[in-house]
Amino acid sequence: MSFYHSTEAPVHFSFSKSKMASDASITWWHAAPPIAALFYPFFLKGFSLLVDTEVSLATLMLAMAMSVPILAFFVAWNLGKAAHPIVSTVRLKSIAWLAIATPPMFTADGVLTYMGGQAVSEITLWVMFWAMASVIALITARNSRTSVVITFPNAKNFSSPRLRVAHGISAVVILVLFLTMHLTNHLAGAVSEAEHRHLMDIFRVIYRSRAIEPFVVLLFLFQVLSGLVLLRTNSHRPADFYKTLQLASGGYLAFFILAHMNSVFIYARRFAGIKTDWDFATGAPTGLLHDPWNIRLVPHYYLGVFLIITHLVLAARVVCIAHGMPPKRANFSSKLGIIIGAVIAAIIMLGMTGLQIGN
Predict the structure, then answer these.
(1) What is the pLDDT of residues 13-58, one digit of tens each?
(2) How many helices (H) and strands (E) does the chain have?
(3) Which is nearest to 166 in space by CA: 213, 126, 225?
(4) Model confidence over 58-111: pLDDT tens digits?
């Protein structure tokens, strides 16, 4: 959801024919994200088996599940430091981007296999996919010394300025017509279920109207498509911590939006015929923490809220710097915004798991 005006010409990157070394060495740990992602469902299963008997071990299992996208982010950040990336760097970074989206991917895996009659189990599909990704990553890391260097002739950025502006404008419209109300509604759930339902009834008059809902859906689909284009083009260039986090959050949100829209519009409304209200969001009657399937929604939702806010904060950082704000000041404001996002996501999750102020 980032945007800013740029007068720089698009870059046309090329591959050097000579076998050169990039300025950041690739090691075996750069192949770790898909291997960690492969074990993601088993960490959640461990939590479900232990949550009623060994709370400390169950917490550790949930923390290990949450560490999968975090590990993938740090790998992508480390690989992104190379000023002269090689083909292997870009390939491993792309796999890391994918592993960052592990929570929404696993949620979508479960919903789609259930809708398909579970002809093949979700775990089988998951293990097959990530085992293949792990093999590719390991082979890529092993052959990195023979990979060619990607060179950029004379421009700093090579994604369309118009696309970035359109991506940003659509994000602002979504923020006004839906997202601000939706997050406020979920924050109210931390007070009580009744407060959540009260605000939901008010807000849905707006964003569920026949005129606005289809428009918002189209804007979200545009966000996904344009965001993936921006992610792909920027994955070939160096990136600092803030840019890496902006790209990582965008990649996560692309999968999160698609998974969430599938769950709401296709599964709930058409396939199952159930209301997408508080009970749907919190996995009633068993809840999010004590159901083997629903536990996947905890990292899915938490990171979804946190990274939506983080993505918006980092987009604002780019805009502020482009309009003359000193980078140090912009970075400090961004850190503060990211912390606030983490707190908001935590408050929402506490409410959804039953720890409400009103109880």
Answers:
(1) 444 433 444 445 788 899 999 999 999 999 999 999 999 999 999 9
(2) 14, 2
(3) 225
(4) 999 999 999 999 999 999 999 988 877 888 888 999 999 999 999 999 999 999
How far apart CA 13 and CA 104 sit, in angstroms, is 32
As to burial, measured by CB atoms within 10 angstroms (0-12 exposed, 13-18 middle, 19+ buried), residue 259 is buried
| Gap between the Cα atoms of 299 and 68, Å rounded | 10
Q: For the CA atoms of the chain, what is the radius of gyration?
A: 21
The DSSP secondary-structure symbol of 144 reads: G
CB 236 within 8 A of CB 88: no
Instruction: Give the 3-state secondary structure of residue 359.
Output: coil
Tokens read off for 127:
């293990």
DSSP classification of residue 271: I
Question: What is the predicted pLDDT for the residue at 358?
Answer: 62
pTM of this prediction exceeds 0.85: yes
A 10 A CB-CB count for 168 gives 22
Beta strand extents in 83-222 (DSSP E only): 150-151
End-to-end Cα distance, the chain: 36
Question: E strands of the chain, at which residues?
Answer: 14-15, 150-151
| SS3 assignment, position 74 | helix
How far apart (Å, rounded) are the C-alpha atoms in residues 168 and 227?
10
Q: Which residue has the tokens 């075996």?
A: 28
Confidence of residue 212 (pLDDT cuts 50, 70, 90): very high
Specify the amino acid at residue 219: L
The residue whose two tokens read 């959801």 is 1
Q: Is 115 in contact with 102 (CB distance < 8 Å)?
A: no
For residues 91 and 152, what is the distance between their CA atoms, to the nearest angstrom? 17
Dist. CA 92–CA 61, nearest whole Å: 26
The answer to whether the beta carbons of residues 84 and 22 sit under 8 Å apart is yes
In this predicted model, what pLDDT tens digit does every residue of 309-340 receive, in sequence order?
999 999 999 999 999 999 999 999 999 999 99
Please calculate the CA angle 75-79-85 and round it to the nearest 5 degrees: 160
List beta partners, residue 150.
Answer: 15
7 pLDDT more than 90: no
In this structure, what token pair is assigned to residue 300?
Answer: 């899915």
CA distance 148 to 145: 8
